[in-house]
């Protein structure tokens, strides 16, 4: 089994009036990514325990190229276009998985 070597951690702060719509849409995005992209190994959606308007994504990919391919998919572009107006703040961290 091939192990992922690359991860992305994304933190969103969503405008409160859009949190329900965003939550539904980001969960669909996670499912689409794992089902449609062979290079997407994991796509978790988490909510901050103390602030329900903060959503955290943890995604793993076979490598950085697989993440680049993810960003070119139709479902990524559709998601990005739809949710961008709902986002107050966004932070993206690109990470390399450590082996030990």
Automatic annotation (TrEMBL):
InterPro entries linked to this entry: ABM_dom (IPR007138), AI-2_Isomerase_LsrG (IPR050744), Dimeric_a/b-barrel (IPR011008)
PROSITE patterns recorded: ABM
Gene3D superfamilies documented for this protein: 3.30.70.100
Gene Ontology CC entries for this record: cytosol
One of the record's GO molecular function terms: oxidoreductase activity
Residue span(s) of domain ABM: 6-95
Name of the protein this chain belongs to: Autoinducer 2-degrading protein LsrG
The species this protein was found in: Neorhodopirellula pilleata
């Amino acid at each position: 089994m091939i192990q992922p070597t690359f991860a992305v951690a994304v933190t969103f702060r969503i405008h409160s009036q859009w949190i329900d719509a965003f939550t539904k849409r980001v969960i669909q995005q996670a499912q689409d990514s794992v089902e449609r992209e062979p290079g997407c190994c994991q796509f978790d959606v988490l909510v901050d325990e103390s602030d329900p308007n903060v959503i955290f994504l943890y995604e793993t990919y076979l490598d950085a190229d697989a993440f680049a391919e993810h960003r070119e998919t139709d479902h990524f572009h559709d998601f990005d276009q739809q949710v961008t107006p709902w986002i107050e703040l966004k932070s993206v961290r690109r990470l390399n998985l450590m082996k030990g």
